[in-house]
Specification:
- It is a single chain.
- By secondary structure, the protein is α+β, with helices and mostly antiparallel strands.
- It folds into three domains: 89 residues, Acyl-CoA dehydrogenase/oxidase, N-terminal domain (Butyryl-Coa Dehydrogenase, subunit A, domain 1), CATH 1.10.540; 100 residues, Butyryl-CoA Dehydrogenase, subunit A, domain 2 (Beta Barrel); 152 residues, Butyryl-CoA Dehydrogenase, subunit A, domain 3 (Up-down Bundle), CATH 1.20.140.
- It contains 13 helices and ten strands.
- The strands form two sheets. Strands 1, 2, 3, 4, 7, 8, 9 and 10 form an eight-stranded mixed beta sheet that branches. A two-stranded antiparallel sheet has the order 5-6.
- Helix 9 packs antiparallel against helix 10 and helix 10 packs antiparallel against helix 11.
- It is globular and about 80 Å long.
- The protein starts with 7 loop residues before the first helix and ends in a 10-residue tail after the last helix.
- The relative contact order is 0.12.
Length: 389
């Protein structure tokens, strides 16, 4: 299978080189509940937000597999920082759907996009575009974004407008961050440093060229990165992150097991048979889930490189593999935390952060267990519950 395209080694090396830097910022990121500006600048220096931006607009236009591996490596250092990078890369896919002049206006050097695709906005058609209002939760990274996106339904005569095929007509709207109110709602248990606050706009103008039919609209940039199934791509901007967090949890447990003698015991934690068994089980779960996610990703990547259509079944299996990666990663973090004993309970322990962050990741709709159901339906020859797979 094809796994390398544009300069993957350089970006992977950059992600690994950033590991100690991101770890130094991790406590601050957690405390202030968003990525610190100094760290954002460092991420810009290494072009982490440019991975998906088309080359014709100055981006790196990396393959999807490399992007996922970079995010996974960043997450070993800190899940919140990796999540912010993933959302920035994920929303930058809008660059492949807008007219060139609009894209160049938005994607100036060191621009970061963010927001939420969920259709919580309301659009009213007017001459040349729409009037838009809406409030979107989970606006990850919005504190360092220059432009934001929000999924929105088009309303006519007080009701949602229907598109051909009998589905609700909706758009992903793009607007300057200065047009929005950022509401600090992000007081949560895990992924605290992602800055995923609410975003609200009230009766702003959105020109037609910044109201994108991302699921059905024509692309203005071609290439395998942009022919990749959109929802599968969006899932891959977050599913590698719990894998990296779980890897960190195992690494932390190994270091603890080599040093800790449990209360009332004569030997190190690593000498306990149950610890040996459980850590090997955790490694098997993590590697298996990781292997499936990358296997189906590589398969679909080869399909789009060849210019062929991706089947609905493969799309569903990719979404299921992404969800599986997150779910199994949370189980691995559970194991590492439990084996860490009382030591893991303290806020100074990375194990408790890994536990919280992994479970926070599983709450994202893209990583929901319902993805198993959709894949199972297609495996059994049944139609999907929705064409949006």
């Amino acid at each position: 299978m094809t796994t390398t395209t544009t300069a993957p080694t350089g970006m992977l090396d950059a992600a690994r080189a950033l590991d100690p830097v991101i770890r130094e910022f991790a406590d601050e990121t957690e405390q202030i509940r968003h990525v610190p500006p100094k760290l954002v600048d460092i991420l810009h220096e290494h072009r982490m937000f440019d991975m998906i931006l088309p080359a014709q607009y100055g981006g790196l236009e990396l393959d999807i597999i490399t992007m996922a591996r970079v995010l996974e490596d960043l997450a070993v250092a800190d899940g919140s920082t990796a999540w912010a990078v993933g959302i920035g890369c994920g929303t930058s896919v809008i660059s492949a759907y807008m007219p060139e002049a609009t894209t160049r206006e938005i994607f100036q050097p060191r621009t970061v996009t963010g927001g939420a695709m969920a259709p919580n906005g309301r659009l009213t058609p007017i001459n040349g575009g729409f009037r838009a209002s809406g409030r979107w939760p989970f606006g990850s990274g919005c504190t360092h974004c220059q432009w934001l996106v929000g999924g929105s339904l088009i309303f006519e005569d007080g009701a949602p407008r229907m598109a051909p095929g009998g589905f609700v007509d909706w758009r992903t709207i793009v607007f300057p961050a200065t047009d929005a109110e950022i509401i600090d709602t992000w007081h949560v248990s895990g992924l605290r440093g992602t800055g995923s606050r609410d975003i609200e706009v009230k009766d702003i103008f959105i020109p037609d060229e910044r109201a994108i039919a991302i699921m059905s609209g024509a692309r203005t940039v071609d290439g395998p990165t942009y022919r990749f199934p959109v929802l599968g791509f969006l899932a891959l901007t977050i599913s590698p992150i719990p894998l990296g967090i779980a890897r960190r949890a195992i690494d932390e447990l190994i270091a603890l097991a080599e040093a800790k003698t449990p209360m009332g015991a004569m030997n190190k934690l690593r000498d306990r048979a149950v610890v040996q068994y459980e850590i090997a089980q955790a490694e098997a779960k993590l590697r298996s889930a990781r292997a499936w996610m990358y296997e189906i990703t590589e398969q679909i990547w080869d399909t789009v490189v060849a210019g062929d259509d991706v089947s609905m079944k493969d799309r569903a299996l990719l979404r299921a593999a992404c969800a599986h990666a997150a779910i199994e990663s949370a189980r691995v973090a559970d194991t590492a935390y439990t084996l860490g004993g009382g030591t893991a309970l303290y806020s100074t322990s990375v194990l408790q952060r890994c536990l919280r962050d992994c479970h926070a990741a599983t709450q994202h709709v893209m990583l929901s267990p319902t993805n198993y159901e959709v894949a199972g339906r297609l495996m059994l020859g049944l139609p999907p519950p929705s064409p949006m797979v």
